[in-house]
Write a structure and sequence with these properties.
Elements: E1 4-8, H1 13-24, E2 28-33, H2 36-46, E3 53-57, H3 63-76, E4 82-85, H4 98-129, E5 132-137, H5 150-169, E6 175-182, H6 203-216, E7 220-223, H7 225-236, H8 239-245
Parallel strand pairs: 1-2, 1-4, 2-3, 4-5, 5-6, 6-7
Helix pairs in contact: 1-6, 3-4, 4-5
């Protein structure tokens, strides 16, 4: 019997690439996104058999809605072996602008609460079964704060810490928690960045490496590994050197700049 993976943010980018890779490995798919039409469009051209997937239209910031989605998924397709909380947004903010605080709240709601709202409904059932893997998509940006990128960096730092806490809570339960931290991936989240993006990776390459890390049950993995080295070095820098290194660096575009 085919295994089942649930993926949020499956309409594009990393989510779509993960769905394609899992399908190629013979998995069944539970695909979640706000834009059901976008998923339908690429699925129609993908060659993935319609009998192997279900589409769920939901917003990860709707906590009650995500609870209903989980129950619906388990009723239709069974309890997933893997749940990947991938949905996320990346928008630059300027804290001096009051309107940007609302943008920051939106980023945090999607990137942080959305992860908890995705993984939470499956915890009890996986614990009862004694197996399963919960995956949170963090980011290298969660390791140090970058100018103009406060909302995204803060949200991904929170995801990393949240998954670490969850991993401790589920210790010895048979349920694994995996934190994946992508570097720069060529998706819509990075296409408007006005600065160099070292080790830029295509989504399908990321998906293949993420699949391996999830299958291996790695508790934490930076992809690509080179960005992991860069991130560790940046973390070790004294604040004065870190601040000097990033002085004058172009900022992440604000929503009004895109």
């Amino acid at each position: 019997m085919a295994q089942l993976v649930l993926i949020t943010g499956a309409s594009s980018g990393i989510g779509q690439a993960l769905a394609m890779h899992y399908a190629a490995q013979g998995w069944h798919l539970a695909l979640v996104a706000r834009r059901e039409s976008a998923i339908q469009a690429w699925l129609g051209a993908s060659g993935i058999c319609a009998d192997t997937y279900q589409i769920y239209s939901a917003d990860v910031t709707d906590i009650a809605g995500m609870q209903r989605l989980a129950l619906d998924c388990m009723a239709r397709q069974g309890l997933p072996e893997v749940v990947i909380a991938n949905a996320g947004i990346s928008i630059g903010v300027d804290t001096a602008r009051p309107e940007d605080l609302a943008v920051m709240a939106r980023v945090l709601a999607t990137n942080v609460m959305g992860v908890a709202a995705t993984l939470g409904p499956f915890v009890s059932a996986m614990r009862l079964r004694g197996s399963g893997t919960l995956v949170g998509i963090g980011s290298v940006a969660g390791i140090r704060g970058l100018p103009g990128h406060g909302a995204y960096c803060a949200s991904k730092a929170a995801v990393i810490s949240y998954c670490e806490s969850l991993r401790g809570e589920l210790r010895d339960s048979g349920v694994r928690v995996v934190t994946l931290c992508p570097g720069y991936i060529a998706t819509s989240l990075t296409q408007n960045n006005g600065y160099d993006m070292p080790f830029l990776m295509q989504p399908d390459v990321f998906a293949a490496k993420a699949f391996q890390a999830i299958a291996a049950g790695n508790s934490y993995r930076v992809i690509p590994w080179q960005m992991g080295v860069v991130a560790k070095l940046l973390r070790l820098l004294p604040n004065s050197l870190f601040d000097k290194l990033f002085a004058g660096r172009p900022r992440k575009p604000r929503i009004t700049d895109i």
